[in-house]
């Protein structure tokens, strides 16, 4: 067995190890709006649901290599809201395009050909093409590490969910319709087409 202590690794190597060990990860495709009114969107796979009632979700945003904050974090700190959009197979290419480092005056919806739709309860726009949009209100930001290696974990309450009708069958969101993709290590992804069922044991 290899024995590795992440604290001894460079940031790059620690990242490669973690994303290879924690998988598959769902992708939060996070849309926000800047002070100047420019729409922003980027993917984050350090993402999880944290509580159901209240409905709480969280995702992690690292600093850029030079220690500067990413636009997503800057925008959320200002507006205190954001939308988490689900990434399916159809959105994979557009999602990847938005992960490039664009200057903050660039509208990443336009870059990726995505449609910003006005949200009901938050200032941030949602993605028209995504099968599920979760409007979130910021609750708390946890910070880890020291400059330039700081990571912010953004925790928010889901206050409204939009679900495309094709994905909503008999009162539930159907994974086989949603066709979410997951993130693995390196630059690898998985589809969720190979689904099986297991009933929970009783008692
Ligand atoms: C599939 C995928 C997952 C990603 N996950 C994360 C993540 O969890 N945390 C992070 O800081 N960056 C992550 N990134 C990189 C960001 O998307 C990238 O830094 C982006 O440019 C940030 O955009 P912004 O400056 O507009 O916020 C990921 C990229 C991809 C393609």
The portion of residues forming beta strands comes to 25-35%
CATH superfamily: Electron Transport, Fmn-binding Protein, Chain A
From the alpha carbons, calculate the radius of gyration and give it in angstroms.
17 Å
The oligomeric state of the chains shown is single chain
What order do the strands of the largest sheet run in, or round the barrel if closed?
2-1-5-8-9-4-3
Average pLDDT, rounded to a whole number, is 97
Helix-strand makeup class: alpha+beta
Summarize the main sheet.
7 strands, antiparallel
| Series of H and E elements | HEEEEHEHHEEEEEEHEE
The rough form would be described as: globular
Bound molecules: flavin mononucleotide
Low-confidence stretches: none
Q: How does CATH name the architecture? A: Roll
Figure out the total of helices.
Answer: 5
What's the CATH first level? Mainly Beta
What is the number of domains? 1
Number of strands: 13
Remind me, CATH topology? Pnp Oxidase, Chain A
Can you walk me through this structure?
The protein has 203 residues and is of the alpha+beta class. The chain has one domain (6-191): Pnp Oxidase, Chain A. The protein has five helices and 13 strands. The protein has a seven-stranded antiparallel β-sheet with strand order 2-1-5-8-9-4-3, with helices on one face. A two-stranded antiparallel sheet has the order 6-7. Strand 1 (28-33) and strand 2 (39-44) form a beta hairpin. It is globular, with a radius of gyration of 17 Å. The termini are far apart. The mean pLDDT is 97. Flavin mononucleotide (FMN) is lined by residues 27, 40, 42-46, 60-62, 70-72, 96, 99, 101, 183.
């Amino acid at each position: 067995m290899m024995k590795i202590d992440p604290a001894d690794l460079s940031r790059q190597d620690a990242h490669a190890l973690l994303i290879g060990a924690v998988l598959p990860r769902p992708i939060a495709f996070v849309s926000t709006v800047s002070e100047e009114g420019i729409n922003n969107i980027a993917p984050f796979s350090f993402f999880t649901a944290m509580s159901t009632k209240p409905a709480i979700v969280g995702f992690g945003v690292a600093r850029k290599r030079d220690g500067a904050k990413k636009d997503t974090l800057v925008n959320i700190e200002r507006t205190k809201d954001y939308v988490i959009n689900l990434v399916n197979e159809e959105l994979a290419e557009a999602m990847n395009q938005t992960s490039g480092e664009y200057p903050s005056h660039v509208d990443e919806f336009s870059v990726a050909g995505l449609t910003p739709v006005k949200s009901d309860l938050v200032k941030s726009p949602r993605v028209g093409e995504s099968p599920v949009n979760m409007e979130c209100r910021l609750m708390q930001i946890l910070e880890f590490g020291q400059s330039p290696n700081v990571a912010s974990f953004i925790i928010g309450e889901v206050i409204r969910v939009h679900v495309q009708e094709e994905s909503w069958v008999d009162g539930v969101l159907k994974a086989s319709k949603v066709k979410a993709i997951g993130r693995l290590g390196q630059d690898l992804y998985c589809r969720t087409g190979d689904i099986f069922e297991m009933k929970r044991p009783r008692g």
